[in-house]
Amino acid sequence: MTLAKLSISELRVALDSKKISAVELAEYFLARAESNADLNAFLHRDRDLTLAEARRADAQIANGNASALTGIPIAHKDIFVTRDWRTTAGSKMLENYISPFDATVVEKLNAAGMVCLGKLNCDEFAMGSSNENSAFGAVKNPWDKSRIPGGSSGGSAAAIAAGLAPAATGTDTGGSLRQPAAMCGITAIKPTYGRVSRYGMVAFASSLDQGGPMAKSAEDCALLLDAMMGFDAKDSTSVSARENNETPISARLLTAFGSDNRSGAGVSKPLAGVRVGVPKEFFGVGLSPDVAHAVDSAIAQFEKLGASRTEISLPRTRLAIPAYYVIAPAEASSNLSRFDGVRYGHRAKEYKDLADMIAKSRAEGFGAEVKRRILVGAYVLSHGYYDAYYLQAQKVRRLIAQDFQDAFKQCDFVMGPVAPTTAWKVGEKSNDPVAMYLEDIFTLGVSLAGLPGMSVPCGFDQQKLPIGLQIIGNYFDEAKMLAAAHQYQLATDWHTRSPEAFQ
Amino acid sequence: MSLTSDDIHRLAKLARINITPVETERTLRELNNIFSMVETLQAVDTAHLVPLCHPIAIIQEMPLRLRDDAVTETNAREANMVNAPQQENGLFLVPKVLE
C-alpha cells in the first residue's frame, strides 16, 4: 500500500516505529505534488520551509515528545494567513502578500507538530462553488480533469483526493468545505460557527465563515479538529463549547453514544437509538437520480447500523439561497473595503488622485465574481434598501435556524445530499452566476444556522464521479457526528476509493 | 424591481470600483438576475421577528465580548510595512490630498 493511502493514525505508527521519518514523508508528498502540478492544487510550495518543519518534527519524535499529529504533513487553504508562505486568498489583490502573523489555526497545527506542505488554491476570497474564480486558474478534479473540484476549498479537496497531502485545512461560508469534499470523494467537517477561530482567516462573510479539516476519513478529521478548535480571544465571535468534556473528540469515536446504557446497542448495532431525520425538501426536483440513490443507500446503511429513519421537514430550505446571497455579499462588501491599495495589496500603476488610485486598484485587483458580490452588498446595505433586503434576510435567517431546531426535536442528525449533482464540466456554469448559486441549496441553510455539517463519501454516479452524504448535527455535536460517520466508514469502503490515475 | 445603468454606476462609485461600459452592461444583466432570485424574500412574513446576527444566538445569548482596555499589541511596525505598495520613512505614501 502506498503512503498516499495511509490514514493519519497509520502514518503515526510508521513515524513512531521509525519506519519512515517526517523528512521522508514530507519529501514523498512534495514529490507527488510536483509530479501532479497540472492539477493546480497548490499555489505556493517551498521545499526548504517544509523540510525545516519536518526536521523539527523528527527531533520531537526522537525526544519522545510527539503528539498525535507530529510529523504529519498538512497543506493550508490559501485563505489562512501564514508568516512564512505567501497568502493570496486566490486573488490578484494579494498576489505578493506576506502576512506578519500566522492564523490561529495555523499556529495551533504548527504547535501540534504538523508539517506544512504549502498553500492550496481556492476561489478568490473563498467566493465560488467551482474554483473557477481563482485568479490563478481553476483546480482540476482528480476524478476527471475536465471537471471542477467544487469550491471554494477546491485545492484542498483535490490535493487529498489525489494523495498530494494526507490532510488539509479549508473554510466554509456557504458550503465551501462540504461541497468540494463531496465532489472529490473525501471527508470534511464544518464545525459549529465560532468553534474554530477566524483569526487570520481572510474574511469573506464574518457571521458565516468557519474553518475546518478535510481528510480521507472521519477518524482523521476528528484528530485534526481536536487540534484546530478552541476558544480564541482574538476572534470576537469565538464560542466555547457548552459540553464540559475534556476528552478529545478523536478519543470518543467509539463511545460518543454511550453504548453501554442503551438497549440494542452492541457490536452489530453501534448506532441503536440514533434518530436520523431526512428532510423531504432535500429530495425534490433538481436532485440527480444517481445522487438521490447513493444518499438513500447511505441512510439505509445507517439503519443497518441500528439508527432509525424519520421523515422531517425543513420548510424554508429554498429561502436559504436568497437569504444567503443577501447576507454574504453584504458582509463581503464591508470586509473587502479594507483593500484600498494603500497599506497592502495591489496598487494601480497610474492614477490621477487618491480616489482614482483606490477605484483603479480595486477594479484591477478583484475578479468578476468578487466585484459582483461587492456591488450586490453595496446595494442591500445602501440607504432605503437596508431594511427591505439586509434586515429581512437576517429575519429569514432566524426562521431557517428555527426550522432546524424544530427538526432536532424529532431527530439527532439530519441527513441528505451535499449537492444536487456531481462535479460539472469546467466552464459549464461559469457564465451564469444564479445557476451556480442554486447549486448551494443543501449547504446554505446549515451555514446560515451556524450548525455543524459534514460531507462523507457515499458512492459514485454512472460517470464514476464521487457523491457526498451530508450529516448535519445540532450545535456542538461534532463528536457525535464524527462518531456516526466513523461507524459508517467502518462498515463501508467508499472513503477508501481513490481515482485510478492517483493510486 | 429592475436596476438601471445609473444604479450600477452609483453602486460602483459607492464600492470604489472603476467600471467600464462593457462591464456595466454585463453587471446590470447579472444583478437583475440575482435580485429577481432574491425577491422571493419579500413574500415572507417576518413581522415581530428579530434579525439573527450571531447564529448561536438562536440557542443562547451571545453578548459582544469586551476585553480589558490594555495594550496587548507589541510594536510590529516593520513587519506591517513589508507589504506597503509605496512607503517612505516608515509612512505609507498616497497621492497628495491637500494642495
Describe the protein's architecture and organization.
The complex is a heterodimer of chains A (about 500) and B (about 100). Chain A is built from 15 helices and eleven strands. Chain A has helices at about 10-15, 20-35, 45-60, 105-110, 155-160, 180-185, 220-230, 290-305, 320-335, 355-365, 370-380, 385-405, 435-440, 440-450, 480-490, and strands spanning about 40-45, 75, 115-120, 165-170, 185-190, 210-215, 275-280, 310, 415, 455-460, 465-475. An eight-stranded mixed beta sheet of chain A has the order 4-6-5-10-11-9-7-8. In chain A, helix 2 packs antiparallel against helix 3, helix 9 packs across helix 12 (about 385-405) and helix 12 (about 385-405) packs across helix 14. The radius of gyration of chain A is 22 Å and the shape is globular. Chain B is mainly alpha-helical and about 100 residues long. Chain B has a domain at about 1-40: Glu-tRNAGln amidotransferase C subunit, N-terminal domain (Histone, subunit A, Orthogonal Bundle), CATH 1.10.20. Chain B has a two-stranded antiparallel sheet. In chain B, a hairpin with a 2-residue loop joins strand 1 and strand 2 (about 90). Chain B is flat and about 55 Å long. The two termini of chain B are about 45 Å apart. The interface between A and B is large, with 74 and 53 residues.
